[in-house]
Amino acid sequence: MNSNSLFSQFSRQSPKGVLIIYLQLLYKALKVTWILLFLFIQRFSKFSESALIYIYVGLIVVLLFILIRAYLIYKNFVFKIDNGYFVLKEGILKKKNTSVSFDRIQNINFKQNIVQQLINVYEVNIETAGSKDTEIAIKALSFDKAQALKEALSEVKNPKRETAQTAESQQPKPLLKIGFTELLKVSLTENHLQNLLLFLAIVVGILQQLQDVFKGFGNEKKLNDLVEVDAATIVNSVLFFVVLLVALLLVGVISSFVKILLFHFNLTLFIKEKSFNITQGLLTKKTIILNENKIQSITVATNPIKKKLGISFVTFKQAVSGKVKKQQNKLIRIVGCKLNQIQQIKKVLYAYTAVEEKEKKRPNNYFKLKMYIRSFLALLLLNGIAFSVLQTSFWFFSNVLLVPITILLIQLKFNKQFYKLDQELLLIGSGRVETHLTYLPIFKMQNIKMSQTIFQKRRNIVDLVFQTASGKVKIPCIDKQEALSIYNFALYKAETNTQPWM
Amino acid sequence: MDHFKNQQVQQLPDVSVLDFKKIHKAYLKVILLTTIVVACIAFVGVYFLIEYKLQEEIPNYTVYIYLGVAVLFLSIFSYLIVGFSRRKYVVRDRDITYKSGVLIKTMTTVPFSRIQHVEINEAPISRLFSLASLNVFTAGDSSRDLVIKGIKKEEALKIKEFINQQINE
Questions:
Q1: Which of A134, A178, A407, A418 could bridge A128 with an S-S bond, Cβ 3.0-4.6 Å?
Q2: A272-288, pLDDT tens digit by residue?
Q3: H/E stretch holding B64
Q4: What would you measure as the largest C-alpha separation in chain B, in angstroms?
Q5: Residue ranges of the domains in chain A?
Q6: Is A109 exposed, middle or buried (0-12, 13-18, 19+ CB in 10 A)?
Q7: Are A311 and A451 in contact (CB under 8 A)?
């Protein structure tokens, strides 16, 4: 209750917030004008002395303006807790007054980017369900105040919490703590191909931006010549390809490592009551409280190498309001889970079921046939395009490699697809190289859909799609009668269950 | 189906045997009218394209272009007419179901307990026939979960009222 009175009056952020807001404004300004600045530095010597003075003065004025703006934003940003509502007033000229009732608050997350880590303040994000513009971010609070705010917000919402809070105070041991070396190991098991592509996409993006700048200087030709000469002399040598392959592999591994390090540095997972407390990230440290109710489904992913090391990834999918933008908040992934840790997570969430022991149901053979037909058509198209572009039949040799890989992938996918169902829980297995196990409590579905193409009709099979508050879960190609009984059963579950689902 | 033993005892209500209701007949006119408007625009577009551009380049084939567009719209018409009779819905005490589709048949059910809000929309042409569409929204990124187009406005209002009543209970 002490924390409650702390927020009964309007209060501001920590004064350090001015710095955070200032840097953020500066960053935004830089993002828009960096090309201009670049040009300026290029032509630095060409400016006359008097012109330079004007430019410096102008710069200082702009910086000062941003500073004043940052201060005013800070000054005008006040919040309080009032009678079950979180009230926020902001805006310098255009005043905005937001109030959110406690039961609309979905999550309260802490975040620290690199600057916030340096000056030791926390960003508090208050996520709300429903309307799109009630996402509230308080940029800078001291840890104590942030913690107090969180407690104040969740206390009123759930009075039972208080007893739980005192029990928790003796800091339980984390269920999962991933150190640096372990993270290194984890990153080796990543999908390097995917990360390589990601990396290349980023590089291409940057290059394109640079090229735009070079174009302005008329240097573009030089750059292109450089590339062309190199390409012409080297492209024929086999050695080049080998080196390229090794280099790409290396880049792939490194980008995996960087990605894993950025997102999952210092990953710790606590279990408190029926919720998970996850902290991770290098540049941006995030603390997320995942409530059992909010978790719609979890996916346990593993691949052959991970299996050897005995580790899996666990992805929590939580409910979000209807904005695609918040994709990253929807999926919360933790890496390097050992088998017994997964068991414990499952025990917290799904203690009531033994779905794993149920009979494995597999999709109809048509599922495989469909994939074969589609891949065949895709390969045909690819060959046609390649032939008409390259004008040489040499390309067809690539099919020696492509066809077996395609067949292998289809077989793998078909073999890994299954579902199990008991009174409460649906378990779906899927994946190609990776193996994914998705657990969905049936009553959490938002709607259910059965669809049947004319090809499926002949075989009397259908696809069944469960729509949850965090995406779709699909059972492909199963017998229609069985699908119908699942359909009816799922509806029965969703309509009779009174547990909170979000 | 050994894992549904429980269900046999309970006699779960079955969606497949329900008495589905077709959407209002007048909506076919709305669909066809809309398509005719689109078809007219398409024909005018094709006409100008041929007059000003293709006439010189491929004078012998212009008839086929008209024919192609005509066949395209004829097949769209027949597809819409066949599809129209497949659009059916049913409201039960605790959920609402809609099914449709020719090449891909779908059936969707939304339990009332998961509905966030219900909306009734009236498009310009539909309004001439006092028809409306019923949109059901649930939480999460599934936004528009169930849309039933072409029911009488009073009917739509009644369903909306009924759903709101059931949610608040």
A1: A134
A2: 877 888 888 888 888 88
A3: helix B62-84
A4: 76
A5: 2-168, 366-496
A6: buried
A7: no
CA distances from A448 to A184, A318, B83 (A): 41, 18, 21
Q: Does A475 touch chain B (CB under 8 A)?
A: no
Please indicate if any CB of chain B lies within 8 Å of the CB of A318.
no
The Cα–Cα gap between A365 and A367 comes to 5
DSSP A160: T
For chain A, the maximum distance between any two Cα atoms, rounded to a whole number of angstroms, is: 85
pLDDT in tens, A315-363: 998 876 545 445 556 788 898 889 889 988 998 888 877 888 889 999 9
Which CATH number is associated with domain A366-496? 2.30.29.30
CA distance A281 to A325: 20
Highest-scoring range by mean pLDDT, A33-47, A175-189, B95-109: B95-109
CB-based contact, A478 to chain B, within 8 Å: no
Please tell me the distance from the alpha carbon of residue B9 to that of residue B11, in angstroms, as a whole number.
Answer: 6
Q: Comparing A20-24, A33-37, A297-301, which segment has the lowest mean pLDDT? A: A33-37
Pure H helices in A322-365:
327-330, 339-350
Q: Nearest Cα to A17, choosing from A57, A70, A80, A82?
A: A70
Tokens of A351: 């203690």
Contacts of residue A181, defined as CB under 8 A and 6 or more positions apart, other chains included, come to: none
Instruction: Please say whether the beta carbons of A34 and A79 come within 8 A.
Output: no
Query: Mean pLDDT, chain A, as a whole number?
Result: 83
B4, B104, B113 member nearest A451 (Cβ): B104
Q: Is A470 on the interface with B (CB under 8 A)?
A: yes
Torsion of CA A186, A187, A188, A190, to 10 degrees: 100
Task: Give the architecture (CATH level 2) of A2-168.
Answer: Roll (2.30)
Whole-angstrom Cα distance, residue B50 to residue A454? Answer: 38
B14 contacts in A (CB within 8 Å)? 484, 488
Which residues of chain A are within 8 Å of residue B112 when distances are taken between CB atoms? 495
What fold, for B89-168? PH-domain like (2.30.29)
Q: What is the mean pLDDT of residues A397-421?
A: 92
Q: Which chain A residues contact residue B106 at CB under 8 A? A: 449-452
Testing the interface with A: which of B12, B79, B138, B141 to mutate, by most A Cβ within 10 A? Answer: B141
CB A446 within 8 A of CB B114: yes
Residue A1 has pLDDT above 80, yes or no: no
Q: Do A448 and B108 touch (CB under 8 A)?
A: yes
The three-class DSSP label of residue A158 is coil
Assess contact for A442 and A489: CB atoms under 8 A.
yes
State whether residue A357 sits within 8 Å of chain B by CB.
Answer: no
Q: A447-453 and A461-468: which strand pairing?
A: antiparallel
Nearest CA in chain B to A361: B1
Residue B56 sits at the chain A interface (C-beta within 8 Å): no
Query: For residues B143 and B118, is the Cβ–Cβ distance under 8 A?
Result: no
Beta-carbon contacts of residue A393 (< 8 Å; ≥ 6 apart): A387
Read off the pLDDT of each residue in A95-113 and give the average, rounded to a whole number.
82
Is the pLDDT at B136 greater than 70, yes or no? yes
CA A358 remoteness from chain centre: 32
Q: What phi and psi, each to the nearest 5 degrees, are found at residue A136?
A: -110, 130
Angstrom CA distances, A20 to A31, A237, B141, stand at: 16, 53, 32
